[in-house]
Each structure stands twice: as structure tokens, then as C-alpha cells.
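DM from R.C. (forwarded with permission)

"hey, sorry to bug you on a friday — could you get me a structure for this? deadline for the figure draft is monday and I only need the backbone to look sensible"
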Amino acid sequence: MLVPSILVSATLATLAVSCGKEPPKPPRPTVVDAVVARIADVPVVLTAIGTVEPVQEVEVRPQVSGVIQEVLFSEGQAVTPGQVLFRLDRRPFEAARLQVSAQSKTARIQADAARRNLERGRPLYEKKIISEGEFDGLTAASQAADAAVEVQEAALRTAKLNLEYTTIRAPIPGRAGRLLAYPGDVVTANSTPLVQVNQTAPINVRFSVPEKDIGAVRQAAAAGEIPVVARLADSGQTVSGRLTFIDNQVDQGTGSLALKAVFDNADESLWPGQFVQITAETGVLKDVVVVPSHAVQNGQKGTFVFLVGEDGKARFQAVETGRTTGGDTVIVVGVSAGQVVVTDGQMKLSDGSPVEVRSAAGGESR
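My reply, with the result:
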């Protein structure tokens, strides 16, 4: 009875050879890097690109018309308040002052004469020697002469002031810009620009933050001073300042809120018109779950990560993220502390893929 068994075995062997197929092999695991999600305190840091601008900027213009006689500074020079920058030709203004001064003296002499006439006429009027109309005329003449004195005194003050205006001084501390008028140029009062002076120490940096950060900014400002750091793009140097201004409305066109910070800038490392990277710390998020930012992916279904299960398989997990600070992203929903999150190799994974973790670093848990 062994013959049928041998025939069956031979038949199966023949079928196996004829088909030429081997049993399917299990898929090879994908090698990935991973970390353990951890609990941490995350500073709430706002970042923005800021524009450096002077605390004050003044375009110096003459207050009287005339001819520039001297320029007493160099382009780009640091200037102090009251420093003489220009001198105009004083001679026409000195002549005008002398003329008005003489007219003022004449008016005072005439006022004295009118006053004496009034005093002489008073007893004559009381004795009915002159009429009431004549006495009123003397009174009016005296009052008119006094008014003429006031007019001439005002004109004299104006002439003296115009003479002072021929010396043009720096109105603020700062740094002078490009020279816009030269000796011999005829300048017009309140019209011709001469030079612009920008105050560079202290100095402002203007920047904006998204509308969603308004609450954090206002809450931090109510609690105290908000420190602000400006980083220069060319050298990487950082400069510390403080927030001084929060705009009273959101820009509807950009959905952002304008802010301003002031920096002492004693070394003038910040320069008007410069762009700088701004960071401002407005608080701390306590005991939140964080993972490296490059672990978080964006897809058609939203933000997600891949978790590594105890069975050695990757699991797709949708997440809701919070702030990103210092290379870490806060996970609001979707990941718990202690879970293993893939940080490299996600592009080769799908839900349920077997994985081999090359490294699984973990932060300190609290």
C-alpha cells in the first residue's frame, strides 16, 4: 500500500516544479530614526522681521530766506542739539533790525510827545478852555502813539528773531545725512531742505505679529516689560531692547498688529532702514508635549506624525500642533509623552509598515 503514497508525493513535487513559485516572504522593515515624545516647558517666543527707524528724524529747513554763507559740519557727522550747522548772510537782517530799532525809537518819542500834550490839555479841559472834542482828540492821539510803540516793538522782536534764524542749529541729537545745500545757495524760508538729522541712539525697531498672537502680547505687556532681541543678518550680533508700543488696531489688509521696540544702541550697531530678525519672549507654556519639528509632516488630511508601536510597526497619527520654538513643536492633540515618534524616513512609510528604529533618542521626562 506504499505505492499510492509515493505517487501522491511525486505528483506534488511535479506540481511544485511546474508552477515555479515560492511562498511569499514578509516585507523587509524600513530603517528610521525616532525619538521619544517628552514633557517640557516651552517659552512663548514671537519672531518677526523688523525695520530699524530713528526715534526722531528731522529735515532741517531755514526759517528765513537768504544766502548760505557757511556750512559748519561734515556729511554723516554725529551732531548734538544746538550745534551750529549753517550760517546765512546776516547783513540784510542786521540792516533790517537797525531800521526797525530806529522806527521803534521814533514811535516812543512820538508817544511821549502825545502823552505830554494830553497832560497839558487835561487842566485846560477842566477849566473849559478847550472843548471836549479837542480833549478827546488829544486822548486818541496819545493812545494811537502808544499802540504804534507796541507795533514797532513787536517788529523789532521779529527782526531780532530773524537775525537769530540766520544761524541754523541741530534741533535733535543724532547723525547728519547727505548735504542738500551748499555755500552760495539761495534758500527759501520753511521750504528748502538743508540736511536730515536722524536720532540713532536710542533707536526704534518696528515689526508686526499675526493677529493670533495679540492675546499673548497684551497679557505679557500687562504683566511687565517685554524683552526684545534684534539679530543682525550680516554679523549675527544680537542687541537687547524692550517693547514700547502696541498699535491700537489690527491692519485689516494683512491681519497683523504693529509693534515697536526701543534699543539703547550706544554703539550704533542698529542703523536706520536696516532689516533685523526680532524675537520677543511673551511667556512660558508649562508641561506640554514636544517633538522635533521635522517629525511633523503635512499631508492632504492635515498635520500628522508616524508613531512606532510595540509591534514594530509604524502607525499614522493625525495631530494638532501648537508653537514651534528652538527646533521643537508643541503637540496639542495626538501624541502623549513617552510615545516613540519617527523623525527620519517618513517618506517611505505607510500606516502599518514594519520599521526598524536606527536610533530612538529620548528627552528628559518630567
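R.C.: lifesaver. Residues 30-42+287-362 form a domain with the conserved putative lor/sdh protein from methanococcus maripaludis s2 fold fold (CATH 2.40.420.20).
me: no worries. The chain is about 25% helix and 40% strand.
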